[in-house]
Amino acid sequence: MSRFGRFRQPSVIPGFGLTFGFTIAYFSLIILIPLIALVFRSAGLGWGGFWAAALDPRVLASLRTSFVTALIAAGINVVFGTLIAWVLVRYRFPGRRIFDAMVDLPFALPTAVAGIALTAIYAPNGVIGQLVAPLGWRIAYTPVGITIAMIFIGLPFVVRTIQPILEEVSKEVEEASATLGANRFQTISRVILPSLTPAILTGFALAFARAVGEYGSVIFIAGNIPFVSEIAPLLIVIRLEEYNYTGAAVIAMVMLAISFVMLFIINLIQAWSRKRYGYGN
Amino acid sequence: MEVRVENVRKEFDRFPALHDVSLDIRSGELIALLGPSGSGKTTLLRLIAGLERPTAGRIFFGDTDASEKSVQERNIGFVFQHYALFRHMTILENVSFGLKVRPRSTRPPAGEIRRRAMELLDLVQLSGLEKRYPNQLSGGQRQRVALARALAIEPGVLLLDEPFGALDAQVRRELRKWLREIHDRTGHTTVFVTHDQEEALELADRLCVMSQGKIEQVGSPDSVYDKPTSPFVFGFIGESSELPVSVDKGDIWLGDRPIGIAGAQAQGQQRLFFRPHDIELVEGGAALAGVVASSRRVGGTRRVELDIGGAAHRVEIDLPFDHPAAERSQIAFRPKRWALFPAT
């Protein structure tokens, strides 16, 4: 027990040993062991082979497509997700509950269904697609289409993280701001939004992670043109179909590394802002 | 600044919270709105602040009609029961907020804002804590920050909504004294809401006692305590006992026995009110006689509960803690000061 002494604080809550042991075992089984297998798989190529596979131009292009579209989608989701959360929390209107429930649909819908539906709408002969086609714009089969699919699947993450925090922001704080002479815009920009920052960052991280990993809905709308609208998860599948398991593992490793670094940075910013905005202690 | 509330009525979803309330608040005074919950005192305060709009009636700040003015235009300082500090801002940023959000034309330069905020922190005795965040402070400190923040905009009127309601008794007493000092030093017209009569009696220049959306009585602490004008005020301010009596030609009777008080103006069925300490013990003669039901020590006095007329009525009287009468099983007394109100 004394070896645990450093991080085990005396506590009245029982079962630390049991629950901590279970957590480690479960975490290893579900996350760590598969990831280690992945590392071993890609290590089969050796150092030089690994970099040759990772720096393949088609791989680099697909990674760029994946991460850039996912970042843009998460950014857009943060703006409009916050707005939707605001409307759902602050206003009472007929159909609010139905609207509220609909936010979760992208969670529940099989992603392929979402992909087919979005493609039908945004394809050059679809409802929206034919509106912009005369302007020479194409949505489906371009990175724009990919971004739209990612926005669709990421939206609930942002709304559902911000909504409860927004409900907690007390009316008194807004009233205090008003009595001090702040107008509505100043109250929102200086008082409400800053207190939502940690939640917004969490929503961003979740939406981003979901978008990077998304496969089902994106491949329908992406068109999957190499170097243009081919996402990294698709390229992994293509490698697998070529029986190039090591090649697939290499792309997966690179995605894993980039995602981990980005999520880690977001987490650091979040921890800093939580502390700064007084959620700590 | 004077504040005049004229015939103000407020309904929430057709549920009346205030019925036709009028109140003159004098410039520079510290006035307490006192009443039980649901009496409309907070609603009245929020109407003065402009956080609510009256259903009918007008509110004047000095000579100007403020009824249609927004909260921002009224230039009031408001302190909330639960502080309502901005938790993502430091103490200094909280206090300077009101000056920083002013339009460029009336906003003091940054250095001046900082200087004034530091001065106010000094006034509320929180110098040295300006870099902390609200959640690093105790409740009493937070409420002092809230007051400094409200004072920063140089309000015409300072409004406090149960400012000490969330604090423990010790801190409450300290802050009470301290608020009085601040008021005497800055001279702001101050209105504060409380349900704590002791707080109101100790702190305020005048009390405005409210019940069920109406003002029951307005006056100095002395006059409200000594000359309550309604049974509600008698019962709500200070301790009191009540007996149903009848008055015949100036003599007061409890049931079929005179109680030894004469000179009553009223006639017929009445409610007799008196305070536990306003009594004298008597030996013989007409008096209220009761059986001691319980006796307990409260500070420097002994509070005795008496059953009068069997167990029909229970009253409380105070005796000096070492008074021999406390040992007896029967005590006879007469109220020295009392009031009669018609029975309803």
Describe the structure.
The complex is a heterodimer of chains A (281) and B (344). Chain A has 281 residues and is mostly helical. Chain A has 2 domains: 15-44; 47-276, MetI-like fold (Orthogonal Bundle). Chain A has 13 helices and no strands. Chain A starts with 15 loop residues before the first helix and ends in a 5-residue tail after the last helix. Chain B is an alpha+beta fold. Chain B folds into 2 domains: 3-235, Rossmann fold; 240-342, Nucleic acid-binding proteins (OB fold (Dihydrolipoamide Acetyltransferase, E2P)). Chain B contains 9 helices and 20 strands. A 6-stranded mixed sheet of chain B has the order 6-7-8-3-9-10, with helices on both faces. In chain B, a hairpin with a 4-residue loop joins strand 17 (301-308) and strand 18. In chain B, helix 3 packs across helix 4 (110-123). Chain B is elongated and about 80 Å long. The chains are: A mainly alpha (281), B alpha+beta (344). At the A-B interface, helix 9 and helix 10 of A face strand 6 and helix 5 of B.
Question: Can you give keywords for this protein?
Answer:
heterodimer, A: 281 residues, mainly alpha, MetI-like fold, 2 domains, globular, B: 344 residues, alpha+beta, Rossmann fold, OB fold (Dihydrolipoamide Acetyltransferase, E2P), six-stranded mixed β-sheet, five-stranded antiparallel β-sheet, 9 helices, 20 strands, elongated, ATP binding (chain B), TOBE-like (chain B), Sulph_transpt1 (chain B), cell membrane (chain B), ATP-binding (chain B)
